[in-house]
Write a structure and sequence with these properties.
single chain, 153 residues, mainly alpha, 0% strand, disordered C terminus
């Protein structure tokens, strides 16, 4: 039996994290200056992923995998959008993961397009169906059923 606030699928989980991330950026009480934007984007992503780990009592080991899945989904969505300025190459690695700094940089470059303070909604993202189910893979005691967990830093 699942809690009504618990996403039913991994894609819904990643979608909920992304919605929280964009909402946190959008709900900033003061407009974010261009000079502060890269740090604010990275900070809000860290806060959303960390809060999810704490709320679901997952090990810190899961942090990088969850963050990477969020960034991969954002990268995929950015490529699907028709943005005013071209996107950088995201430099996908052998595992298909986008370079986190490239995705954060693209978010910074397209911040106004994605989070206009004139609109009331966060970007509508197309979520992949193969997102990772972290709650089933990482336990609070540091153990993991995820085969690649030992390689996570």
């Amino acid at each position: 039996m699942t809690d009504a606030s618990t996403p039913d699928s991994p894609a819904e989980l990643i979608g909920a994290l992304i919605d929280s991330f964009f909402a946190a950026l959008k709900d900033s009480p003061d407009p974010i200056s261009p000079a502060e934007r890269p740090a604010e984007i990275a900070y809000e992503l860290d806060q959303v992923v960390s809060a999810y780990l704490d709320e679901h009592e997952l090990s810190a080991e899961a942090y990088h995998q969850i963050e990477q899945d969020v960034l991969n989904t954002i990268a995929s969505d950015l490529h699907a959008r028709e943005l005013e300025h071209p996107l950088p190459e995201f430099g996908y690695d052998a595992d298909g993961n986008a370079d986190p700094l490239a995705v954060l940089s693209a978010l910074d470059d397209h911040f106004d397009d994605l989070l206009s303070h004139d609109t009331a909604t966060v970007p509508d993202l197309d979520l992949p169906l193969d997102s990772t189910d972290f709650s089933a893979e990482f336990s609070a005691d540091g153990g993991s059923d995820f085969a690649g967990a030992d390689s996570l830093v």
